[in-house]
TrEMBL record:
Keywords: DNA-binding, Transcription, Transcription regulation. The keyword Iron-sulfur does not apply. This is GntR family transcriptional regulator. It holds the Pfam family GntR.
Length: 248
């Protein structure tokens, strides 16, 4: 950065908010562990002799990059390390417990969705949290003859545990499709992120004994998750793609 000290914001050709952004970036990467609070806007403005607007602009850029996250009413924090999304059949509840986090779920409502030939699928929409932090919004459809009375069960815990206990359903096969998406206003509100923030979207059709029971789409926060896949040159033939394996 031409004409700027590593720890000072000076007059010059480089905008002050850009200089401050790089100072804060070094602070985040070298000094502060994940989840740490950064100094307040007032403290930063006084420390570096800049305006609050300059501080807000520098912080906003780092929030957009995923290095910082704002928590309403609490302040701005260094982002936690991203979690690996598991590409095998495991429930959200089991996955969070395996990581040492406390999973919770808020039921966002359930409805019956019309299907062809007069049948109705059971629809469920839920917000998934870990240690109180919203991580994903789920929307699932279930075969009504396989899970009669599903909407009468407690849907705030592990749905897979409920399926196993009440219907003896344990999925043994699934097709999963992944794509990127920008958060709409409602999804952003539920997840506590900005509108148009990055999302990882998973659509999974799960079966037991060859019969599809669940069609689940999950919107995960892109600043909290990443996906790593092992690729093999020799891939076994897994059969044809399902008819509804793509976006809903």
């Amino acid at each position: 950065m031409t004409g700027a000290s590593p720890d000072r914001v000076v007059d010059g050709p480089t905008p002050k908010h850009t200089q401050l952004r790089e100072i804060l970036r070094r602070m985040v990467e070298r000094e502060l562990p994940p989840g740490s609070a950064i100094p307040s806007e007032r403290e930063l403005a006084e420390r570096y002799d800049v305006s609050r607007l300059t501080v807000r602009t520098a912080i906003g850029k780092l929030v957009d990059e995923g290095l910082l996250s704002r928590v309403r009413g609490k302040g701005t924090f260094t982002a936690a390390g991203r979690m690996e999304l598991q590409l095998y059949l495991m429930s959200f509840t089991a996955d969070m417990r395996r990581r040492g986090l406390v999973p919770t779920t808020r039921n966002l409502g359930a409805a019956a969705l019309g299907l062809a030939e007069g049948e109705e699928a059971l629809g469920i929409r839920r917000l998934r949290l870990a240690d109180g932090v919203p991580l994903a919004v789920e929307r699932g459809w279930y075969h009504p003859r396989a899970v009669p009375g599903l909407l009468d069960l407690d849907l705030t815990g592990s749905l897979y545990a409920q399926l196993a206990e009440h219907y003896d359903i344990r999925f043994d096969h699934a097709w999963q499709t992944v794509w990127a998406e920008s958060a709409d206003r409602e999804t952003a509100r539920l997840l506590g992120i900005r509108t148009a923030g990055p999302l990882l979207v998973f659509r999974r059709i799960s079966s037991m004994h060859g019969k599809p029971v669940e069609d689940m789409t999950s919107w995960y926060r892109g600043d909290q998750y990443q996906v790593t896949m092992k690729l093999d040159r020799n891939s076994p033939d897994s059969g044809p793609l399902p008819e509804h394996g793509g976006r809903s």
